[in-house]
């Protein structure tokens, strides 16, 4: 059977009603749920590439983060309403059902473990890097350096869905924007910790922006640069100072 017909037959099969035989096909209700889920996933797959292309073409770079964050306000309000309703419902249920009856003793013991009380500012801080107060890191190798965002920054942003990097060959001064990161929660600019000329960008991030989340200090690096003023490194923090800086933010 040709490949398109195979896919068509497979898609039709999810709509076949259940039979009386055990192990038969799924019910009509289950088929509709599965179809709805597949439709939702298809829409998500279309949305992100489309919004990325339109954003790069129609939204000025200097106002991109502000505009994208503005359109996230309705979504954030919706999430707050859902959380508020969920909290109110949970409170009503907890008043109606004693705690010892609502969860098992094993779960109670698990909830009492100290892992639930780890400091929220805890994050990985390698010792061989320099750090900016805007949460970028620099790894110096001779007259060149690799730049990325810290584990603290990626945790604050959440799951990244888009990374916009500069072109190779441009020069940016210390403290100036050089990249834009967009997560499921917000869009954020990234600032250069040193003055430099970009000699390489991490092209993998165009297809795999999540590398910044899973490996911020290795596979998730952003750019490699040729240092133009190594003295600027003296204004950056070492690992001890940066750890205290992160702790002070909480």
TrEMBL record:
Cofactor(s) this protein cannot do without: (R)-lipoate
Q: Residue span of the signal peptide, if any?
A: none
Residues modified to N6-lipoyllysine: 185
Q: What is this protein called?
A: Glycine cleavage system H protein
Q: Name one GO biological process term.
A: glycine decarboxylation via glycine cleavage system
HAMAP family on file: GcvH
- InterPro entries per the UniProt record, alphabetical: Biotin_lipoyl (IPR000089), GCV_H (IPR002930), GCV_H/Fam206 (IPR033753), GCV_H_sub (IPR017453), Single_hybrid_motif (IPR011053)
Protein localization: Mitochondrion
- Keywords from the UniProt entry: Lipoyl, Membrane, Mitochondrion, Transit peptide, Transmembrane, Transmembrane helix
Subunit note: The glycine cleavage system is composed of four proteins: P, T, L and H.
Give the record's cofactor note, including how many are bound.
Answer: Binds 1 lipoyl cofactor covalently.
């Amino acid at each position: 059977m040709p490949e398109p017909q195979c896919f068509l037959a497979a898609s039709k099969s999810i709509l076949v009603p259940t039979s009386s035989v055990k192990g038969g096909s799924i019910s009509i209700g289950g088929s509709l749920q599965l179809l709805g889920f597949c439709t939702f996933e298809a829409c998500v797959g279309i949305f992100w590439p489309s919004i990325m292309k339109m954003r790069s073409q129609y939204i000025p770079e200097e106002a991109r983060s502000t505009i994208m964050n503005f359109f996230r306000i309705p979504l954030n309000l919706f999430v707050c309403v859902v959380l508020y309703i969920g909290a109110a419902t949970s409170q009503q249920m907890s008043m109606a059902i004693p705690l010892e009856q609502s969860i098992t003793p094993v779960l109670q013991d698990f909830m009492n473990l100290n892992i639930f009380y780890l400091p929220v500012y805890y994050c990985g801080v390698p010792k061989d890097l320099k750090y900016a107060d805007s949460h970028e890191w620099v790894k110096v190798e001779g007259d060149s350096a690799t730049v990325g965002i810290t584990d603290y920054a990626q945790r604050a942003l959440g799951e990244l869905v888009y990374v916009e990097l500069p072109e190779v060959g441009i020069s940016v001064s210390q403290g100036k924007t050089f990249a834009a990161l967009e997560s499921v929660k917000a869009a954020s600019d990234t600032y250069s910790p040193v003055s430099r000329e970009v000699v390489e960008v991490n092209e993998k991030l165009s297809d795999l922006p999540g590398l910044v989340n899973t490996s911020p200090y290795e596979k998730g690096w952003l750019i490699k640069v040729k240092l133009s003023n190594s003295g600027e490194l003296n204004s950056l923090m070492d690992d001890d100072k940066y750890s205290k800086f992160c702790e002070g933010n909480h």
